[in-house]
Specification:
The protein has 510 residues and is α/β, with parallel strands linked by helices. It folds into 4 domains: 5-118, 3-Layer(aba) Sandwich (Cobalt-precorrin-4 Transmethylase, domain 1); 122-249, Tetrapyrrole methylase, C-terminal domain (Methyltransferase, Cobalt-precorrin-4 Transmethylase, Domain 2, 2-Layer Sandwich), CATH 3.30.950.10; 256-285 and 419-509, Rossmann fold (3-Layer(aba) Sandwich); 290-417, 3-Layer(aba) Sandwich (Rossmann fold), CATH 3.40.50.10090. The protein has 20 helices and 22 strands. The strands form 5 sheets. Strands 3-2-6-1-7 form a 5-stranded parallel sheet, with helices on both faces. Helix 3 (67-79) packs across helix 4 (98-108) and helix 12 (315-327) packs parallel to helix 13 (345-352). This is uroporphyrinogen-III C-methyltransferase. Residues 6-217 form the Tetrapyrrole methylase domain. Keywords: Methyltransferase, Porphyrin biosynthesis, S-adenosyl-L-methionine, Transferase.
């Protein structure tokens, strides 16, 4: 039997965007992903659909699997011939026990590779506005464990040397020992007025930073209720946070937002929200799939020359239509003199990717405006119009065009199906009042979300709802909800701007 391989991959400190390109490539190709507590769920979801995902997370006093058990698991899986990715928070070789796992691979004769990651001591400090080195303040950086193995009878930490350290000290896993660490430093001569900070959940929207001095930090940590995971930073550079605190000042920092868009399309909205500091939980209420019956679409493509207009109301419609065109061994030249109307800039951008520009594009993304825009380009009486759309698209557009005298062929270019993945987690978050916003980008996301999540649970939580436009808002209204924010321009950027504006207005009022 061929032996597999083990890859010890650093996932970074928490922000999923901080994993290396090499690390992400390995996760996407792995047969088995063995991951830790501090690894972002978004990274785990990047694994293949058929990959085996094994959680071996450790919290203080609660280990899913012992280290010996993890070592054995990695070797056993690799011996089946699998490509095993051991996804570890931070860097595998910086207080990550990656050295032990690598040695186990060597003993078993298993090929292994180490992919370094950004370590929390550097990244959490940076996201808290604390540069761990500075030319005039700190030329040295010391990374120190704040939690040594329990079976040691004597500490390996030389506090006399640490107290004389002329630079920055970062203690990992030291929250429970913050008082003895600070007392030991001052007892060996460190000035008690030296700036010090604790950063919890660094680089994530759950990040929380408290600042004091070596003398006061234990009391500050106790009063603020800071719990693991966190790092302790000691040194003059901590004073720079007052000017350099960039991450925690973002407009959506600390806000947890549920994105209900289809998984294949959620990344754009997720990325925009995260750019503003939000913590995003993806619950894809819909999934986009090919039509159950594509014969009407294929028939329309066989008769493209008979259509005066094609109206694309979504990027998915563009993709579905051109996929069918490709399957018919045709390309955009088959459209000939047929004119094209697109609804929204994203749809137009997707069309541009096919080398085409729309002949018409309404200013507003509503049915009456679409019909008026086409009518302005010429009398629609007797015009033959093709509308490749979702199987669940409402008839108002068809009715509006028909009212202008057009003959409309409404064909299914793609289907939307419910996707309830993540509903249980959303319910738990709502119960704990840990969701600040839920976003809706279509009527389908509204319907499927409330099919999976009890509306009463949403009403009971202090959560706000954001809608991409009037059609989605109407569906929310029909469900008994009034959105707290609606996009002025009915796009992803408009939706994000509406949430930011709402948060900003609330902040100004307070």
């Amino acid at each position: 039997m061929n032996k597999g391989s083990i890859y010890l991959v650093g996932a970074g400190p928490g922000d999923p965007g901080l994993i290396t390109v090499r690390g992400m490539d390995l996760v996407s190709r792995a047969d088995v992903v063995v991951y830790d507590y501090l690894v972002s769920p978004r990274l785990v979801r990047c694994a293949r659909d058929d990959a085996e995902l094994i959680y071996v997370g450790k919290k203080a006093g609660k280990h899913t699997l012992s280290q010996d058990g993890i070592n054995k698991l990695l070797v056993d899986k690799a011996r089946t011939g699998a490509m095993v990715v051991r996804l570890k928070g931070g860097d595998p070789f910086v207080f990550g026990r990656g050295g032990e796992e690598a040695l186990e691979a060597v003993e078993a004769g298993i090929a292994f590779e180490v992919v370094p990651g950004i370590t929390a001591g550097v990244a959490a400090a940076a996201y808290a506005g604390i540069p761990v080195t500075h030319r005039t303040i700190a030329s040295n950086l010391g990374l120190v464990t704040g939690h040594e193995t329990p079976d040691k009878t004597d500490s390996d930490l030389d506090f006399e040397a640490l107290a004389k350290w002329r630079g920055t000290l970062v203690f990992y896993m030291g929250v429970s020992n913050v008082e003895p660490i600070c007392q030991s430093l001052t007892a060996h001569g460190l000035d008690g007025q030296t700036p010090a900070a604790l950063v919890r959940w660094g680089t994530t929207s759950r990040q929380r930073t408290v600042v004091g001095t070596v003398d006061t930090l234990p009391a500050v940590a106790r009063d603020s209720g800071i719990e693991p995971p966190a790092v302790i930073i000691v040194g003059g550079v901590v004073a720079l946070r007052e000017k350099l605190n960039w991450f925690e000042r973002r407009p959506l920092f600390g806000r947890r937002i549920v994105v209900t868009r289809a998984r294949t399309q959620a990344s754009t909205l997720t990325g925009r929200l995260e750019d503003f500091g939000a913590d995003v939980f993806e619950m894809p209420a819909i999934q986009i799939v090919p039509p159950d019956d594509d014969q009407p679409l294929r028939d329309a493509i066989d008769n493209l020359a008979s259509f005066d207009w094609i109206v694309f109301t979504s990027a998915n419609g563009v993709e579905g239509f051109f996929d069918a065109l490709d399957q018919a061994d045709l390309d955009s030249r088959a459209l000939g003199a047929t004119r094209i109307c697109t609804v929204g800039p994203v749809t137009a951008e997707r069309l541009a990717g096919r080398g085409l520009r729309p002949d018409a594009q309404p200013a507003k993304f509503v049915s009456t405006e679409i019909a008026a825009t086409l009518a302005a380009a010429g009398d629609l009486a007797g015009q033959n119009i093709l509308c490749p759309r979702s199987d669940l698209a409402p008839r108002d557009l068809i009715d509006a065009l028909t009212a202008q005298g057009a003959t409309v062929q409404d064909v299914t270019a793609y289907c939307t199906r419910p996707d309830c993945a993540g509903a249980e987690q959303v319910l738990e978050l709502l119960a704990d009042d840990e969701v600040h916003w839920v976003t809706f980008t279509s009527s389908s996301t509204v319907k499927n979300f409330f099919d999976a999540v009890d509306p009463a649970k949403v009403r009971a939580a202090s959560v706000r709802l954001a809608s991409i436009g009037p059609v989605t808002t109407q569906t929310l209204t029909d469900a008994g909800f009034t959105p707290d924010a609606q996009a002025k321009t009915h796009t992803i950027d408009g939706l994000v701007d509406a949430i930011v504006d709402c948060e900003g207005a609330e902040g100004s009022a307070s």
